[in-house]
Write a structure and sequence with these properties.
Radius of gyration: 19 Å
Oligomer: single chain
Structural class: alpha/beta
Helix content: 40-55%
Strand content: 15-25%
Largest sheet: 8 strands, parallel, barrel
Order of helices and strands: EHHEHEEEHEHEHEEEHEHHEHHH
Length: 314
Amino acid sequence: MIGLGTAAIGRPQYINLKPNGTNVPFQLKGFIEKGKSILTETYEGGVRYFDTAPGYGIAESILLEWISEYQPKDISVSTKWGYTYVANFNPHALVHEVKEHSLDKLNEQWEVSRQLLPYLRIYQIHSATLDSGVLENREVLERLHQLKNEYNIKIGLSTSGDNQNEIIEKALRVKVDQNDLFDSFQVTFNVFDQSLLKMSALLEQENKTLIVKEALANGRIFPNKRYGHYEDVYVVLNKLSKKYKTSIDGVALRFCLDVLHPFSVLSGASESAHLTSNLKALDFELSLEDLNELRGLAISPQFYWKERKNLPWV
């Protein structure tokens, strides 16, 4: 299914390419109302899964306000801990978010995130990495285990970087009280970075929940003169969009759905037109021949993440 990632409705700047961007001055009230409007439109479009995080600016509070006003009965929510948004809506901020995988940060952010109960189904470490040491921090792991049992939620993590498979492998070995701690993995997967395919069979075998983020590669799937080295990708995506009478992003999202069969592929839409275009992925299925052609577009994860680090916050 398609879910909604709320990073773009919770903070005005994000790592992305926005060819149709504007320089409209930021207004907090209007920003909040627009965010709630997108949530309503997403729900009315059939989406029932929403992913958020404290690191996404005020996304959690917008989601909570929308739930209070709209009163949806059948949604599920995931949130994360470990990043703090610090840009304060300043487009020129040098630092937008600060990472901290400590027990204190976990407890601090849980006190806010727990307000998402009873809709909260998955609680995740935000961008777990090997160098943060979070997968070896027994205090943190035991606290997550406690939350898992006390509130009957799944514990997960999101991954970033060219070594995400190594991170997943290590997380799969983490046990508390002789039981697996991690039930869910939010991973980067798209037509460019397909490295997760090496792990997908194992995750399915272990009955883990798989959530796909960055399915549109932060906008790099769309034709862009600055990325001429992706001309072959643009040709294939355009051809398939015409074949299936759909959008380019619809093809990219459908690729993730058909190849991985995940619990959810996240749309990051913050505009009505983008949401409508994303949801077209639900109207068709790609043929095996087309899936194989798209698989052939993969690039090395090292190149993908090196390029991603240079994308602007806009």
